[in-house]
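Exercise 7b. Backbone tokens:
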């Protein structure tokens, strides 16, 4: 029996950039040299790109009542787990096990993108994203970000906007 050919990605592409290209969405890729010693992936990205930390969003995976859920919040703040649970009609949220998050999304920690995940998870985008014409999120690899309109991100991921971040 012949082996199935593997899906070919664009050179240097990630599942996130491939999904954006396939959808015909306008986006810009920003690459920077990732420092493995950096304490915060998101803050490192904001600094390296010269972008305000309130426009760079981190992708976090939480467990809401037994269901993995993606939260996209500004790197300048943190995730309000109670608000996330409430936003999706849940009772309790905790941060997901990192190995489960990596296995489910297909990305490594620090490079998890809300786009092009192995298994599409319900997604909540912090409402503050609407105050920016574009935001940056991980492109699926440490040292690689994509900049796009928050409405495009919400549309592609099926995300709902809710106040889930706190400063």
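Sequence design result:
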């Amino acid at each position: 029996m012949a082996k199935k050919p593997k899906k070919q990605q664009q050179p240097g592409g990630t599942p996130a950039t491939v999904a954006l290209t396939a959808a015909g969405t306008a986006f810009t890729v920003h690459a920077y040299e990732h420092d493995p010693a950096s304490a915060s992936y998101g803050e490192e990205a904001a600094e390296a790109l010269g972008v305000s930390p309130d426009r760079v969003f981190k992708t976090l995976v939480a467990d809401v009542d037994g269901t993995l859920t993606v939260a996209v919040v500004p790197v300048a703040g943190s995730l309000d787990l109670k608000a996330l649970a409430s936003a999706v009609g849940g009772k309790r949220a905790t941060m997901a096990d990192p190995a489960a998050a990596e296995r489910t999304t297909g990305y490594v920690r620090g490079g998890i993108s809300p786009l092009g995940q192995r298994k599409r998870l319900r997604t909540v985008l912090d409402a503050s994203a609407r105050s920016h014409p574009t935001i940056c999120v991980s492109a699926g690899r440490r040292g690689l970000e994509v900049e796009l309109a928050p409405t495009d991100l919400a549309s592609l991921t099926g995300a709902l906007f809710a106040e889930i971040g706190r400063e």
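Instructor comment: The mean pLDDT is 90. Helices lie at 15-23, 41-49, 81-87, 98-105, 150-157.
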